[in-house]
Amino acid sequence: MSAFEAVISTVAAVATVIGLPVAFLALRRTPNGKYSPKRTAATFRQVRRELKSVYDRGRLESVANKAQRKYLLVEDVPLLVKPGWIAEAPLRLDAVRPDWKTPEKAKQDADFEPALEFASRCLAGSGQLGNTYHKVIKLLERPDERLFFNGSSFRLLDVAVGQESESSEKFPVTLTFTAGWYFDALDTTDVLGYETAALGLSPRRLDHWRKMRGPYRRWLGDPFNLQKRCAIPGVNTLTIRLGEPAPTFILHERNLQNATSQGVTHVAPAGEFQPRDQSTLASIVDLDLWNNITREYAEELLGLSEARDQPPGLRLNARLDEVASALDDARARRDIDVWYLGVGLDPLTWKPEILTVAVFKPDVFDTIFRDIVTENDEGKLMFPDAGSTRMTPFTEDNVKPSFRDRLLPAGAACLELAWRYRGEMGIRD
What we know:
- The chain is of the alpha+beta class.
- Helices cover about 35% and strands about 20% of the residues.
- The protein has 2 domains: about 1-35; about 35-420, Nucleoside Triphosphate Pyrophosphohydrolase (Alpha-Beta Complex).
- Helix 5 (about 105-120) runs parallel beside helix 7 (about 180-200).
- The longest helix has 19 residues, at about 180-200.
- The radius of gyration is 22 Å and the shape is globular.
- Residues about 1-35 and about 305-315 have low confidence and may be disordered.
């Protein structure tokens, strides 16, 4: 054994005794200057465990909030925003104009090349395992391919407040999108969470960790510059059923089979903003937030196969059509009111999150979701009473403190704003 190897062995033994993460040692190169695939895999798994642990993720989010407090412009809303991004009062979803920018595929690929290069540096020499975040996840974690594939998606480019459209019609909010792909979002946006978690494992880098100063995040610079990376927004909908003695709402606990945001609690339904057919490039034809929400209702509350043509074998069926039609008809009759609350960035990953609320009349909810499930592909719905599908009362005691330690920031924002604007949305506590 060389002197160098002896030193490394001694350090490893001491680190184990005093509790330093073994994964930190995996960041070191071997004597020949190359990264060890075994050590690299250990590092990656350790960092991913940090992201999957509800406790550790909460700690990371707390660091992200403190380091970026200048962007937390709305009290008790844990999302990074620009002025006007959170609506001063709830808006009907029809007041939000989705705009479309035709993508230039060759230019888009070129735009992402610098981001992919910088992002790959925070994967601890994972070139021997894969040079992008999604490749290493796929190799080491083998996620369910029904949920983890490179689906076509809508990439957010801009959020504009109070601008006129080409037809001179003024919309309170215009969201501009182009085509994107899910793996590009993982590799250029979600990887920011990995970078920060990795910094926290190194005693020498704790100051960078506290200040959120990973090299990739520093290179991106402005969190609101959506041109340098692929930022696919989540569409998050808090579902509220009116009724006596109090309105009720539902939350969803995500399981460990998901590639991101495992083990946390979130509003339901929620999902990436994606076209119906994720096997082809996203286009203006499917650019509709409500259609996205209806598909998520079918998947998360009724457990139906995802309403898309990818992966092969999953096709729209009569039940899905029935659910979509029932939701459309109820919304047209105003038996469902759908509200837009705003958009913000997750502080840890800088992922955009669109915040909405759907308020159901009780008989309509009970009819459409008569077969509501307790579990779906991504986790389980949360009901306060075992063996019952009665939802959680929408009261201050339940909304304010109860779930906050496990909620994703976007879910916490939905609950906070819904409670704040409950009167404007016709929700009486």
